[in-house]
Amino acid sequence: MEPVSDPQGAYRAYGPALVRKAERILRSREDAVDVVHTLFVDLIPRWSRDVDLAYLYRAVTNRCLNVVRDRGTRARLLAREQQAAAPVGRVLLEDEIVGVGLLAALAERLDVGHLEVLVCRFVDDMTQEEIAAHLSLSRKTVGKRLDRIRAEVIALRGEGGARPAREGQAP
Amino acid sequence: MSACIGEPISWLRLERYALGGAAGDPDAHAHLARCAACARCLGEIRDDLVALPPLAVPAPPPPRARWWAPAMALTAAAAGAILVWRIGAPGPGGPGSSLGARPDEPPREDVAQVARIKGVGEVTLGVVRERAGAIRHDARTFAPGDRWKIAVTCPPVAATWVDVAVYDAGQIHHPLEPARISCGNRVLLPGAFAITGDRPNRVCVRLGAAAAPDREQPPDACVTLRPE
Questions:
Q1: pLDDT tens digits, residue range B11-24?
Q2: Chain A residue closest to B20 (CA)?
Q3: Could you tell me the pTM of the whole model?
Q4: Minimum Cα–Cα distance from B184: chain A residue
Q5: B217 domain residue, yes or no
Q6: Contacts for A39 with CB less than 8 Å, ≥ 6 apart
């Protein structure tokens, strides 16, 4: 894959992949397009040759997490999520596909570092080795964060009322 | 959907595979040949069409002036004068010609969504529909109760005058006051409007770099909105 050195070229080449990624988190194509477009608009003044698909992927994760953490936007996304088609689920978190509801509930309990690992593993379906390379973390740290994420999901379920709506089931 | 036969190929890896082909990732290629779940994900990527809004990127700063710059400027001015003379002359109605385009006539169907305006650059007309609280940037159909806004994308260093005209069954409406905007990505014009009726409407803009555009001139960019 050839590197793309200018914003317009990167937008054309990687924009669709980034929209699909944002849509997997937000379950809304329109919001996903907005996130990606806004990201590029913000990046234009400080564009560098180091911006590649992996960098943009990570930036989209953080933008989407900000959207989910915004309570006003979150309510709209949750309402829209009910109408969206069930996503593909290859890597499940405690038998559950991670959707806006679960992500929002975990965003109340976990810091950004853990949420990034969560998205990498359970939304982007990365292996622990890939996550470690993608986020510049040690494999051990990734494992610890995944353990904490699973523990929080179990705790959420134990609390009953705080448990998010089930977004999907394993095939 | 069947489950993955082993460790799934991540979406990032699938996207790279879709962009670069099998040669860059033989392991993924081998996995995809055997795994229906991951092959289906790759198929989703390949079948997906994403409509991205235009992205305006500022032009790089002009190069430093050279000794031959005055000569080039004179040549460009002469060429520009010839061009203006050619466009202004009565002609056979090619693109950009005003022949037969009286202001009360609907704009030609080939008036595009993107216009190139001297002193501004490339300007892209966009519309934003609000329906019961749902905002869409890609909508091209209308129903009673919809509210529409105009979004303009043009190079951030520029500014442009925008005058909106809606052509509806032989009638022209100017729902918004002409406005001067500082360019950027999807800059919204002040105000909103509704579209009624049961026939397609052409939503057009006239653009001007220095002053509010003359309503006698043909529109520079249009989009068609159709009833549902």
A1: 999 999 999 866 77
A2: A1
A3: 0.63
A4: A41
A5: yes
A6: A18, A56, A59, A60, A63
